[in-house]
Amino acid sequence: MGSTSGIDRRSLIKRSAAIGLISVPTMSFLSACASGDSADNKVEKGEKSTDNPLGVNASAPLDFVLFDGGFGVEYAEDAVKVYEKTYPKAKVKFGSTQKIQSELQPRFNGGTPPDLIDNSGAEQMDMGVLVGKDQLTDLTPLLDAPSIDDPSKKVRDILRPGIIEMGQYDGDACYILNYAYTVYGVWYSQTALDKLDAEYPEDWDAMLALCAKAKKKGIAGWTYAGKYPYYIPFSLYPFIGKIGGREVLDAIDNLEPNAWKHPAVKAGFEAYYELFKKGYVLKGTPGIDHVESQTAWTQGKALFLPNGSWVENEAAGTTPDDFEMKVAAPSSLDSSDKLPFGTLWASGGEPFIVPKKAKNPDGGMEQLRIMLSENSSKNFTGKVKSLTALDGGTDGLELTSALKSAVAALEKAGENILNPRLQDWYVELQKQKIGVGAIGEMMAGRMTPAEAMKKCQEFADAAAKDDSIKHYRHK
């Protein structure tokens, strides 16, 4: 599925330092892996049984670190309480942080990582590198374990489509369990559109017309996380895929030569650049972060925001009661698009990993099995207003307008759901280079679409030629 050529020590150290797996000067990543095999430090396995299919050591400590982001920490704390009730002799150390890489990098280097990590946020560790350097536990035992609610079904049988595939990087092994199921797209307030006597625009001409109408009322058409412009692809990538077909996005993921020069990319970039050129982007957007952009949006300063379904919970503090938050798939460019209106990006999010050198990997997987129960899933959805990887799990819940629209968007998309892999195969390339260094520059007016396309291709070509990077391809 992917390939790497020979990796010399200098290239490995250079690459690992670049994505934060080591801090210079310090022990190299290879040395850290070689020193003190963690197999000697692992807790003894417990006895497998119907109630303990993973063979968890009932008295072994569990170390769990969660990313404290848009979903908060309460859902995980609740799931930890279930673990503690199930294994009352086990001491669970639970912590949360927004600085995943900064705080956990030294622990990976020292061979003492936590047993379970929610590897998310701006300081997300590069999953492609972690997999490529054999630092993660294969979660197949979890997938093959009986589910908590229906032991006749394995965990793999109760997951939403695409969840397992997202955790696979090379072959059938699954290294990541994305707990949330995220609907990416264009977020808006139905109330704001009603005030303009408007419907969500289903093609780009209608989008531009609505933005022009809003501008006359002193309202911007769009805003986004200017300091983190890799949020823009949440709507731009499916827009491009809709225009040219999913094979365009696959070629980009595969780091293929000239992938960024495809006519669909050109059309997508030029359409979004037109938002800037015509003054339809909220003034000052390039200088604001995700929270500030969301706040400006909930305050009615802009109509549309590219984001994921965590936004409802993250922006809850500033969202008016009558906002009626909704999400929609990207507008069509025109009738020549390869895929129909409704095509959108939806996939697993909030990636959980069990490090290979974890002392209690069985406990880490058991905590995930608990989180995939219907009770824990409903608790998550009810508290953070987002779907989980569990297929279903919303029966009996009163859904908000945002969550209802997300479910409706998935139903409308049907088979036309796209899942670009660039953001989890090549984190640094997607976020800092393509996101910040090209798309962000274009949307700020500092690059033309042609220049941004060229820069994206240069970044992708460099990654493709970098033999210190593990390369992946769509099957």
From TrEMBL:
Record keywords, A-Z: Signal, Transport
Cell compartments where the protein resides: Cell envelope
GO CC entries: cell envelope
InterPro entries linked to this entry: Bact_solute-bd_prot1 (IPR050490), Chitin_NgcE (IPR022386), SBP (IPR006059), TAT_signal (IPR006311)
Family note: Belongs to the bacterial solute-binding protein 1 family.
NCBIfam families hit by this protein: chitin_NgcE
Official protein name in the record: Carbohydrate ABC transporter, N-acetylglucosamine/diacetylchitobiose-binding protein
